[in-house]
Amino acid sequence: MVSSLTTLPLENGDQLTRIEFERRCAAMSDEKKVELIEGIVYMAAALRYKSHGKPHASI
Fold it and tell me: What pTM did the predictor assign?
């Protein structure tokens, strides 16, 4: 059983109420793009490369 003091991290595809979603977002330490659409959590995919658009910038 999960303690009431423990906040579970948000996961892509979680089904939450708006209140629970906002509570978990407030407890997140990192700045991730997360959205709640019709009760389902959507998280942006992480980019692995810091120079993602640089090769095309000189075109």
Answer: 0.66
